[in-house]
Amino acid sequence: MANDTRELNRRQDHLTGRSDIWLFGYGSLIHKVDFPYLESREASIKGWARRFWQASHDHRGTPESPGRVLTLVEAPGETCVGVAYRVTPDVFGHLDHREKNGYLRLTIDMTFVRPPHQNLHANGLIYIAGPDNAAWLGPASDAEIAAQIARSRGPSGRNIDYVLKLDDALQAMGAEDLHVAAIAKHLRPSTSTQSSAKGRQP
Ligand code: SIN
What is the pTM of this model? Predict the structure, then answer.
C-alpha cells in the first residue's frame, strides 16, 4: 500500500450526502484535538486492541529515525474505549493529512459509554493502519517499544509525550489500557529512583 494514504482515503465514499458523522479516536485523537467538532462522547468499540506497532515518520519521528505510534489490531473479545467526535465532512481534509502515514478510514460500530447516551450505538469512521501499510512495524517487546519511543521525536514533538499524554487521558477517563500503561511505565521516571536521588541530597 502507498506510503501516503490521503488519496486512498479521499476516494472513499464515506462522506457523500452527509452533514455530519461520528469519528472514533483511540490514540492522539484523544489528547490532541486540533480539529473542530460538534460534540464529543466517550465511546467503545468491540474486537480491537491498541498496539504501538505503527511507525511515525511525520509526527513523532523522522524517516531516518521513526517513532512508534498506535494502531489497532483485531482482538476478539476485547473492548477499546476512546472518544467519539461528531464532525462535519470538511474536517476530513485535515484529518486525512494528519493520519496520512498508513492509516485508512474504515467504518465502525461504536457504543457510547456514559449517560444519557449509555449503550446507544452509532456507525462512524475510524483511522486504522493495517499490516499491509508501508509504515507497519509489528510486534516487539515492551522494552524494545519503549526504547524506540524514548529516543524518537518529530515535527509534532517527543514520542514519549504521545504515550504519556494518552496514558494520562485514559486514566482520567477510567479507561486504562494495559498495553499503553505497560509502555508508559517503562517511560515514566520511577518514583523509587526519584526518592533515592532525593535521599542522597544533603
Ligand atoms: C487515533 O488517534 O484514533 C488514530 C491514531 C493516532 O493518530 O494516534
Answer: 0.92
